[in-house]
Amino acid sequence: MNTRKIRDCAAGRSAGIRGCLDVWYRCFLKRLYLFIEKRIEQPVGGEQDGILRKPQPKRFTVKKHIIYVLVFSISGFLVITLPIILTMFIMSKNYKNLEGANAFFQNISMARQYEKDYFITSKGLDNVLLAVSEAKKVLIENYTSFAGEVKNGIEIGNLEEYERQLFILKDMESEEGSSVRKSSSVDFENYSEYLTKKEKISRKLNYYGIKINSFADTLVKNINESMEKSLLFFYVINVYVLVFLFILAFALIHLLSVRILRAIKELNAYTSSIAVGNFNISLPYRPFSDEFSDLKTSITQMMKELDRQQSVLAQSQKLRAVGTLTAGIAHELNNPINNIMLTAHMLLEDYFDICDEERVDMIRDLIDEAGRARLIVRNLLDFARESESIMEPICIGQVVKETMKIASSQIKLSGVFVDLNIPPNLPRIHGDRHQLEQVFLNLILNALYVTLKGGRISISVEYGTDEPNFVAVKVTDYGKGIQDHILQHIFDPFFTTKAKGKGTGLGLSVSQGIIAKHGGHISVNTKMNKGTTFTVKLPITTIPANIGSSADNYSVQIKK
Amino acid sequence: MEVLIIDDELIVGKRLKPALVKMGCEVEVFNEPRKALDRIGEKVFDVVITDIRMDDVDGMEILEHVMNKSKRTRVIMITGYAMMELARQAMEKGAFDFIAKPFKPDDLRGVVRKAAESLNIKLKET
User: What is the mean pLDDT of residues A139-147?
Assistant: First the structure.
């Protein structure tokens, strides 16, 4: 019970720590981002020449970002290397100190050992002196570095005193030796004095020896301690710097990668929507100008160019379709002209022989027929004219009827019957009247092309059958149908089954472009030897008639 | 001389009728080719003037019909500019002549006069 409680508590704490870290990291990232943004987005221009300008995002390229990360990493590396080098330097110094202290300690110990030996055997005083002078040498050599390690300063006095005592002892010994050599009889009085003296020196030596010994001991201990202390200090410093740098580097790289990946994802979405023929998309605002902004600019440029190319292509295709119409139009135009010619001639011939009523009737005929001719020409010119794209709410039934007027002469000429089925009260759609006329004309001309004289085609408008928000225009012929290997190419530009010089192969491709621009799609359904139906689906406008004069945000879907 | 005019353009018949009557022809006008075919079945005309392109029955059919009925009848085809090929076919099938829209009444009168000459019928001078 108790242990579980403890475990829970521990788990809770660790989770708490993790959560806290997470919050900290997020907060840190946000701050960093804001900081970069603030550095970059200093207010520019503002209101100039009385025109409110959209603030131009400051330039902060990905290259710069990468350079920042690189510079940061390198400086971080340097920052982390410096303390390591410093640690190594200090440690090596400490080690040298330690070595010196050890040598000193060893020499002192040796001197003490030899001293003891001397008092037992009365031999080897020179060894003691040698060891002491050695110790002294070490101490003098390392004087400055040792000075910092002990509180009470270097007790060199003790060592010198010790050495002095040794010299006294040596003097005494040499005196003793010479006196022994001088007189063979032993002066007991002198000897006992000598012994007392020796005893006294021995005590003194012992006193200073202990002091020196403890000094050496403290020195070694202190150096050891300070070594350990600095080791620990640098260890902690290094760990902290490492952790800090790691977090900062991670955050910078995180920002960089998020930035790049997001931009790529966005651009990918846009290019794929361009691929299906929708050039009317606006790319999102970027917080700062960088390589992706350049790419965005060039994509926008490309889309504008594509859009322009498409309209040029559409116009040339339209004129081509008009070319197809000319035979029918010429024939159609000949009828009113013929009527006018006959009537005018007869009026001139019989002017004085006929009554006023007949004359008026003839003049009326003249006017009516002239009007008829004008209408034919106007329909054609209206259609052929290069016009600005005007997106407006339109009734699709009306557009189909207008198209029928344009195509009527061709229909008459080819001797084909058209079943037209346009239900009343169709919902409005948002689109360009002339462009849609072009699409329907293309479909009707294609249907006429495959229909033999005396055959029929059917054109119908349907609403709310399978897709509730779309209105569908169906153009059906009862010809041979389209073979599979041809079917997959019919929307390709410059693909045609017509004889050389008869078709450009642009009709369906241009039509598809126009319908995609309207947010709709063209589909085809064909059965061998039964016929083919082309269905154009266009989205119904749910917005009030006057609002929304752009067709920006339609979803695009093209079925082939 | 008995003349039949078939054209679905009302004005053509309306204006050509007085023009030909002045030459001394007896003129019947039909705007619906189907009714004209019925009439051809009933009566043999000296000259049939027909438009080639009409909604219901086209001029070629009428030509064939007339030719089957009577080889003597002169058929004059009215064509649009775009249908020269069709006109040539009509000539091969036995049409007397063709005249392209738009034409003057005198142009047609000239053709009708030629047809009358070929039938040895004398027409009035206008």
Answer: 81
| Max Cα-Cα span within chain B | 36
Residue B20, in any domain of the structure: yes
The crossing angle, in degrees rounded to 10, of helices A2-40 and A188-275 is 70
Residue A99: which of A265, A227, A188, A263 has the closest Cα? A227
Integer Cα distance of B120 and B74 in angstroms: 12
Instruction: Tell me the residue type at A74.
Output: I
The CATH number of the domain holding residue A343 is 3.30.565.10
Intra-chain end-to-end CA distance of chain A, in Å: 70
Whether A339 has a pLDDT exceeding 90, the answer reads yes
The full length of chain A comes to 560
Q: Give the least confident one: A125-139, A268-282, A284-298, B33-47.
A: A268-282
The reply to whether residue B11 touches residue A346, judged by beta carbons under 8 angstroms, is no
Give the largest CA-CA distance in chain A.
200
Lookup: tokens for A199 = 């005893």
Residue type for position A548: G
What is the domain count for chain A?
Answer: 2
Q: What is the pLDDT of residue A545?
A: 45
The answer to whether B12 contacts A342, with C-beta atoms less than 8 Å apart, is yes
Which of B80, B102, B105 is closest, CB to CB, to A346? B105
Mean pLDDT, chain A, whole residue set? 80
Q: Does residue B84 belong to any structural domain of this protein?
A: yes
Same domain, A417 and A319: yes
**Domain edge (last residue) among A225, A251, A277:** A251
A482 with A389, same domain: the answer is: yes
In three-state form (DSSP H/G/I as H, E/B as E, the rest C), the secondary structure along A345-379 is HHHHHHCCCCCHHHHHHHHHHHHHHHHHHHHHHHH
Cα of A304 vs its chain's centroid, Å: 24
Q: Evaluate whether residue A214 is within a structural domain.
A: yes
| Same domain, yes or no: A233 and A340 | no
Residues of B in contact with A342 (CB under 8 A): 11-12, 15-16, 19, 102-105
Q: Which residues pair with B3 in a beta bridge?
A: B27, B47
Residue B123 lies in a domain: no
Provide the angle, in degrees to the nearest 10, between the axes of the packed helices A433-449 and A396-414: 30
Cβ(A179)–Cβ(A134) below 8 Å: no
DSSP result, B50-87: EES--SSS-HHHHHHHHHHH-TTSEEEEEE-GGGHHHH
Complex confidence, ipTM:
0.93
**What are the percentages of helix, strand and coil residues in chain B, rounded to 5?**
45, 20, 35
Mean pLDDT of the region B104-123: 91
Q: Please give the helix or strand (H or E) that residue A159 lies within, else none.
A: helix A156-182
| Cβ atoms of residues A531 and A479 within 8 Å | yes
Q: Which of A251, A275, A302 is the last residue of a domain?
A: A251
Q: Which amino acid is at A212?
A: I
Optimal mutation site among B15, B29, B83, interface A, most CBs of chain A within 10 A: B15
Of A338, A349, A415, the CB nearest to B101: A338
For residue B66, pLDDT over 80 is answered with yes
Residues A507 and A522: their CA atoms lie apart, in Å, by 13
What is the tens place of the pLDDT at every residue in A89-118? 888 888 888 888 888 888 888 888 888 888
How many structural domains is chain B composed of?
A: 1
pLDDT of residue A501: 64
Question: Is the pLDDT at B120 greater than 90, yes or no?
Answer: no
B124 assigned to some structural domain: no
Determine the structural domain holding residue A149 and report its residue range: 63-251
